[in-house]
Design brief:
heterodimer, A: 445 residues, alpha+beta, Cytochrome Bc1 Complex, Chain A, domain 1, six-stranded mixed β-sheet, five-stranded mixed β-sheet, 18% strand, globular, B: 455 residues, seven-stranded mixed β-sheet, 15 helices, 12 strands, disordered N terminus, disordered C terminus
Chain lengths: 445, 455
């Protein structure tokens, strides 16, 4: 229970091959007060003291995701991958040995908007101080050795190749390409195999130098610390970073004018459908009407309209959903399902009809009440652990959301009207301009 | 397994499990109730654990426990299909259910005042499920889609399924939790009715509640909602003990894929079956020596050292209901073969047998166990899971309390002893994923590196 295997397959096996009735979807009370300040070098810090458990969670996030790759697709991912593979003269093995000898957990990762490093440790000085020192080295003094670079690049290529086995992953990559065209959100964050093979270590070093800087960083801290300790912690964490400059805003996204449909052959028994358009961004004026409306349409698991139509009434798919992923610029409004190859057209029709009807007629009064009750009545669940509060802090900081975001969220949801939802969907969601990708089954021609 | 025990009275004991007190009760009808207080946030999780899972299933109806789990959302005498989920959702709840080899579990995470809603609905479907053919015909299709999603179209999952089926002869761990497709195609409503009647009863269930609750109030609510339910005469499953394996077994899985993969397993005891109760803890530490993080041997020596693999893992679950496997898996690096990856894993096993594990490695694992014992308390769900899992496989949930101490007591000599005794070729099963081309014109990865990919 305390010793976790590292490979996903074994983790799945050991967790008992749990089969859930549905894919578990995300579903918080007096919201915690968020403290905020800037470090000397200009990093933005967000802190919630919580003394109930003797532990601390720390996250440092940079605007250094794949949307910043420019001509070198995969650079952001490779930079993030290399952080804990050598820093301040310590090799990857020594970094891991020191962290794990403290019982601490450290990881780094990246996505389209951001790259981050995270640490969970016991909060007493004997554990926190040495663990923090390593995290500070990893983000502030990475070595970027050629040998580590080559090994991680080769591993990334095998990882990409393996992901091609998964029709769902292929569909996920294709729908971003179709939805985002020339926008930096289009490519998959790892890059293609050719992209990865053409990255040089100098590219990685230049990427690091530009984006891993204090003014481009957001720091989230949750746990058993007081303000003075948190202040010192944030200073120590940013000690190795240059002050630098915050990354410029990404270009805005335009909605494709015409609908497209792309079919990709795959040796799979199911076809994976993805249908999308650019949706909304963090701080979007239509955030709440779109969010609450989509909760009814496809964001509430088994009780959503899509689930009722596709799964409950017709038994066509195990998982069907629609999600709005707010990003720095308009993130995807993504509809997904997967079904046996011979019934994919039927399932896609049901999904399109359900969206079309919703845009025309909106939620019923009962549906709106039910969605609001679910979101507001369950808000305590969203902020009931240190880990969940930390992820809110990162989001608030990274996207410049107000400090009272958690406290005001339920009231803003409650204020949404049916008219606002219908108005927002009419102005922002165009069923006849959606991009669709179907991956699975033999080639059509 | 426990049969039906008529318990005169509930008992309430207080034991310390990682921090907060745990309260255990048993109702007159045999239902066990375990409550753990966690007052950090005004929320609670209810988990209902049934002693039934895939390992209880006879051949011909594999996957039935999981199908029944799906059907548990499809209406009772008092609530029509879909209403369970609708009521939980309207009350701000997050709910789901899961099935494993050893248990079937239903849960709702909700704001603390909603506990009666969760109890009412769970008690209702414990005895009054209305299995309807129309709902079944749709849901069995959903489950078949789930099998396609999770297994048919995932080369590594198919490899694992074939691996399990090869490793076991008589043990019911041979069949997949989701069931064989043919069994799903031939399942009918009567099968489900029998299965439901046989296992869904208060004396075959444990209700676990963790969160911002008062144990006395929880008990009163449990008596109110679950108390009136009639117990069932439970016939425990046959042991189906795996006969001794007489030599190495292997299986090859040839399906379209891009990357080869291997998984191997040795037959090992678990807490419930071990003659010496330190052995499972030693096996647990052994898995940690190989794969307890990025400083463990498989990553430092095979991924970053010899670079024969791009990833490798080791795993073991000491809390399984029946004798289980000590697993090793690996994905070879582009310029290496599966055979080389296997040899590298075997060399690691040999080293565990011949050379005592260093004090530093052991200390590292012990530090991880002590810290994760604290970290785990950040999740009410996980705290409940730990209690429910132990109780449901027939172990005392209080064993979780001993975990840190028992791991700390493991010695280098014991590690060497279990490696020599159990990690032996005679009980080994090896499975290999041997990729076929994904499509014409698109080459699977051979031993060579580089190369084209689709799209």
């Amino acid at each position: 229970m305390g010793i976790n295997p590292s490979t996903p397959v074994l983790r799945m096996i050991l967790q008992g091959l749990l089969l859930a009735v549905s894919l578990i979807t995300a579903t918080a009370h007096a919201a915690p007060a968020v403290q905020h300040w800037l470090t000397e070098k200009g990093a933005r810090v967000y802190f919630v003291p919580l003394t109930s458990l003797p532990m601390v969670d720390i996250n440092i996030t940079f605007a250094a995701g794949s949307a910043r790759d420019g001509e070198h697709a995969g650079a952001a991912n490779m930079t993030s991958t290399l952080l804990d593979k050598g820093a301040a003269g310590l090799g990857a093995n020594e970094i891991a040995r020191r962290i794990e000898s403290l019982g601490a957990e450290m990881s780094a990762g990246s996505a389209r908007d951001m790259a981050w490093a995270e640490l969970r440790t016991l909060s007493d000085a004997a554990h926190l101080e040495p663990a923090l020192a390593i995290l500070a080295d990893v983000v502030g003094r990475p070595d970027f050795n050629q040998q580590d670079f080559e090994r991680e690049r080769a591993r990334t290529v095998v990882g990409i190749r393996r992901s091609e086995q998964s029709p769902g992953t292929v569909a996920g990559n294709e729908i971003f390409l179709a939805t985002y065209g020339d926008h930096p959100y289009a490519p998959r964050p790892t890059g293609t195999i050719e992209d990865v093979e053409s990255i040089s270590l100098d590219t990685v070093k230049a990427f690091y130098k530009r984006y891993y800087v204090a003014r481009n960083a957001t720091i989230g801290i949750v746990g058993d610390l007081d303000r003075k300790q948190a202040t010192q912690l944030a200073e120590q964490l940013t000690a190795g970073l240059a002050a630098g400059e915050r990354a410029a805003k990404l270009p805005p996204v335009s909605v494709p004018e015409a609908a497209t449909l792309k079919r990709v052959a795959h040796p799979s028994t199911q076809s994976h459908v993805r249908m999308a358009a650019p949706g909304m961004h963090r701080g979007d004026p239509d955030y709440f009407p779109l969010y609450v409306g989509n909760h009814t349409l496809g964001g509430s698991g088994l009780v959503s309209r899509l689930s009722k139509e596709v799964r409950e009434k017709r038994g066509l798919s195990y998982s069907v959903s629609s999600y709005l992923s707010p990003m720095e610029q308009d993130g995807p409004y993504l509809f997904s399902l997967q079904t046996r190859n011979d019934q994919v057209d039927e399932a896609l029709d049901v999904m399109r009809d359900t969206l079309g009807t919703f845009v025309k007629k909106g939620p019923t009064a009962d549906e709106l009440v039910a969605s609001k009750k679910n979101i507001t009545g369950g808000y305590a669940l969203r902020i009931d652990s240190n880990a969940k509060i930390l992820s809110h802090l990162v989001m608030i900081g990274f996207y410049d959301m107000p400090l009272d975001y958690m406290a005001t969220f339920p009231a803003k949801v409650d204020a949404v009207t049916r008219e606002q939802i219908m108005d927002a969907f009419k102005r922002r969601v165009f069923p006849d301009r959606m991009q669709t990708v179907i991956v699975g089954g033999p080639a059509a021609d | 397994m426990r049969g039906f025990i008529a318990v005169m009275l509930f008992f309430g004991g207080q034991l310390a499990l990682a921090g907060s007190p745990v309260h255990e009760y048993q109702l007159d009808n045999g239902l066990k109730l375990i409550v753990k207080e966690d007052h950090r946030a005004p929320v609670m999780v209810t988990q209902v654990w049934y002693k039934v899972g895939a390992s209880y299933e006879p051949d011909g109806i594999t996957g039935i426990s999981h199908v029944l789990e799906h059907m548990m959302f499809k209406g009772t005498e008092t609530h029509p299909p879909g209403e369970f989920s609708r009521i939980i959702s309207e009350n701000g709840g997050s709910e789901n259910a899961f099935t494993s080899q050893d248990y079937t579990t239903y849960f709702q995470t909700m704001e603390k005042s909603r506990l009666p809603i969760s109890f009412e609905l769970e008690a209702d479907r414990m005895r009054r499920l209305q299995l309807q053919d129309e709902e079944f015909q749709k849901e069995i299709n959903v489950v078949m889609e789930e099998r396609r999603l999770r297994t048919e179209d995932k080369p590594t999952a198919l490899t694992h399924e074939q691996f399990q089926a090869t490793a076991y002869t008589a043990s019911s761990y041979r069949s997949p939790v989701i069931g064989w497709m043919d069994d799903l195609e031939n399942m009918n409503l009567a099968d489900l009715q029998d299965w439901y009647r046989r296992w869904y009863a208060p004396n075959n269930a444990t209700v676990v509640v963790v969160g911002d609750v008062d144990p006395n109030e929880v008990l009163a609510l449990a008596k109110k909602y679950f108390g009136p339910l009639k117990p069932e005469s439970i016939r425990p499953p046959k042991p189906r003990t795996e006969p001794p394996q007489l030599g190495k077994r292997s299986v090859v899985v040839q399906v379209p894929a891009e990357v080869p993969y291997t998984i191997m397993g040795y037959k090992v005891p678990v807490l419930r079956t071990a003659a010496e109760d330190w052995e499972p803890y030693a096996l647990e530490v052994l898995a940690g020596v190989l794969d307890g993080g990025n400083s463990a041997r498989l990553t430092t020596e095979l991924v970053r050292g010899s670079r024969i693999v791009t990833s490798a893992g080791a795993g073991y679950d000491l809390y399984s209901r029946q004798a289980d496997l000590f697993l090793l898996d690996a994905t070879p690096a582009a310029e290496h073969t599966v055979a080389e990856a296997q040899q590298a894993l075997f060399a690691q096993v040999k080293r565990l047998q011949e050379e005592p594990v260093s004090k530093e490695e052991l200390d590292r694992i012990k530090s991880q166990v002590v810290a994760s014992d604290v970290f785990e308390q950040d999740s009410i769900f996980y705290q409940g899971m730990k209690i429910g899992q132990l109780e449901t496989v027939g172990l005392d949930w209080g064993l979780a309390d001993e975990y840190v101490e028992r791991i700390n007591a493991v010695t280098p000599a014991q590690l060497q002893a279990v490696a020599r005794k159990y990690l032996v070729e005679k009980t080994l099963t090896v499975a290999v994923l041997d990729p076929l081309p994904m499509e014409s014109g698109r080459k699977p990865q051979a031993a060579a590196s580089g190369g084209g990919h689709g799209h």
